[in-house]
Amino acid sequence: MSIPSGFYPSRTISHLPPEERVKILSYLTPQEQLMMRGASRAWNYLSQERLGQFAFIQSIAGTCSRDIEKLYDNDPKAFEVFLDRTVNTNFNLVSDSDSRVMGKFFYNVLYFKSRVNIEEMMQWLRKLPPQKRALIEEFNYYDITDRQLAEVIELCPNLKKLHLINTNITGEGLSHIPENNQLEYVSLSSPNLDKAFLSTFFSRATKLKSLWLVSPIAGEILSHIPKNNQLEKVDLDNSTLKENHLIEFFSKATMLKEVNLSHSNITGKCLNFIVSDQLEAIILSYCEYLDEKWLVKFFSNAATLKRIDLTLSSTTGEGISHIPINNQLQTLVLRYCEFLDERYLIGLLPNATLLRELDVSKTSITGQCLVHISVQNQLERLRLRDCKRLNEALLREILLKATMLTELDISETAITGQVLVDISEHTQLEELIFYNCKKLDEALVWEFFLKANKIKKLHSKSLSDSLIRKITIFEMLVRRNGNVKLHQQPKEVINFLHDLPLSSREMVLSLDFANSAASYMMITEEEIATLLQLCPNLKFLAVGGKVTGEGLSHISEDNQLEKLFFYSWNPDEGFLAQFFSKAKKIKEVKFNKTTGVGLSHLPEGNQLEKIDFYESENLDEKALATLFAKISFLKEVNFFLSSVTGEGLSRLLENNRLEKVSFVMCKQLKEEALKKLFAKTPFLKEVKFDSSKTTFEGLLHLPGDTQLEKLSLRYCNIDAEIFNALISKAAYLNNIDHRGASIKQKNKLFKAFKKIFGH
């Protein structure tokens, strides 16, 4: 990554407090920080200081292993030097957040090194001073031995998170954990775990809050957990479990909030030994041997549950129908429950007033149960995928009642789409999923799409190309307010708009048929006039080709147009005059090959802020004088490759707000006109003179309190004395691009520049 020639960081940087400069650096990636070192001596000097070095550490702490690997590969020796310096530097960390940053930095470096060579990682860890190792709170390693793990635990006394996935350890290393350990989160999977070692570990890991465990003896291991444990979350998915072991464990886990027993052989009996009164989530997916009598007993006392997942289990729904009336249930997942009886859901849903997500995909429900949801329901996501018996009339009742629903999946059902039309004007739906709905009527889908104002996403692979194309155009023109380039021919867009109701056409705010002055969809005058008529609230229009402006001249008096890009081969100033005389709200105009006569017919009190006279080689300075004398809000003007002299622009109002002006490749500039112009531009911040002809004397007439910040002089002949005077005058000037410029007395110029920027 390289720095453009002429880039100069703001001179105010050197006057910022060190803490503020470090904060700026800390927002950059490691690669960007290295780039900044090459941009400025001030930044490079800061990076060598302790605070600057910590900013680099902070950036690495927030990046991923792959990015660290890139840093290393770019210059391995420099990277190791940096690490050695970090190890040997005392950063005097005073806040907890700074300590956490340093700890995360060491975690990332160790993880990177472990992926290269686990023993090399251990050697580097051993080199760390004790106060540095004390900052490490997390480890994540796959290929580690019990001996190495025991050493890690000994070297890092403040570990809080330990991830040991797909290892072959026995747990002997874990058994060496000291009594005063800080461990709170453990992820552990190994086929070789020894219950004696794990029993010792759990007896000492008294602060453990979260455990993810996969082992052939997981249940037996947990049965040895002490009574004074702090466990809140236990994930035993895919572990071998015996119910008697879980009964013993649950009777001692008094603080449990989340339990995952997926893919186990439990009947549910063990659940009734959960003594925690804080349980919020129970996941029993793929449990094929559940007994409803145990589930009835369990759910009858589960008033605190917020999430229940019984995916692909043997449940009929009887158990969950006994959830207390004052329940907290928010998410219920019953997908692929082939034995589900919706009569049980009729007992549950009226009382589940806090339910936000319901998934009954691939079940035999008709929808009768869903009709019983509470009128005060808060349902946001409903998934009915592959419910073959779903009744469309019942679905209509559900959707009319679920007024907060934002996501609906009716894939692989037998609906026609009539239900969608019936609820289209009332629905809050944002996302509709309907793959493989073989009886779906596309006309109904289109009618729904037109009326459902909140819809953002349609997911389906079975729609016809013509409907997909209509939906695509509608999304571009209406849903996204046209903030995209149109690749359709104007005629196709017009035909589409003719079929839209007025209410939808009034929502079309943008029609962009042009990528640039050299790339656009060909369009006729008649098509432009028709588009303006069909879209009464249009705010942005971009067109190009063999157009004169005749189509534009048909715009209505009460038009809302704010932005026009008009790339014409042969503009007619008469037609443009008719158009601009009615463009009361226009704020931005970009066009080429104009004289400016048409634009000069803008009404008094206009709102024009930005003009681009791209490649206008026959500008009429009198017309420009008329124009600029009545523009109060102008902020930016571009005369790229035009015949501008500056005389018309110099007629700007005294109280103008001009901030940016570009004279790139302008060869006819008049110095006296520029003097008059610049003398009354107190808000000017940026000027471009690239490849233009001027002495820059006009810039010396800028007001004494000029706000000029950026100046581009590429490929110009610069009068050094005038330019040095400008540098002295423009107190806020901090960015000068002089690539290719010819500067006499260059050493004197840069002596002045060095004085200002301090480097």
Structural account:
The protein has 759 residues and is an alpha/beta fold. Among the domains are: 1-136, no CATH class; 137-245 and 262-267, Ribonuclease Inhibitor (Leucine-rich repeat, LRR (right-handed beta-alpha superhelix), Alpha-Beta Horseshoe); 609-759, Alpha-Beta Horseshoe (Leucine-rich repeat, LRR (right-handed beta-alpha superhelix)), CATH 3.80.10. The protein contains 27 helices and 28 strands. The chain has a 14-stranded parallel beta sheet. Strand 23 (660-662), helix 25 and strand 24 (686-688) form a beta-alpha-beta unit. The two termini are 22 Å apart.
Quickly describe the structure.
34% of the residues lie in helices and 13% in strands.
Characteristic terms for this protein:
759 residues, alpha/beta, Leucine-rich repeat, LRR (right-handed beta-alpha superhelix), 14-stranded parallel beta sheet, 10-stranded parallel beta sheet, 27 helices, 34% helix, disordered C terminus
Instruction: Report the sheet-strand fraction.
Output: 5-15%
Roughly how much helix do the residues carry, as a percent range? 25-40%
Mean pLDDT: 90
Low-confidence stretches: 1-12, 746-759
The main pleated sheet reads as: 14 strands, parallel
Using the alpha-carbon principal axes, give the shape. Answer: flat
The name of the CATH topology of the domain at 609-759 is Leucine-rich repeat, LRR (right-handed beta-alpha superhelix)
Please give the CATH class of the domain at 609-759: Alpha Beta
Query: What is the spatial order of strands in the main beta sheet?
Result: 1-2-3-4-5-6-7-8-9-10-11-12-13-14
Query: What is the terminal separation in angstroms?
Result: 22 Å
Architecture per CATH nomenclature, i.e. the level-2 architecture of the domain at 609-759: Alpha-Beta Horseshoe
How large is the radius of gyration?
36 Å
Total of helices: 27
Name of the CATH superfamily of the domain at 609-759: Ribonuclease Inhibitor
Number of distinct beta strands = 28
Counting helices, strands and paired strands, the structural category is alpha/beta
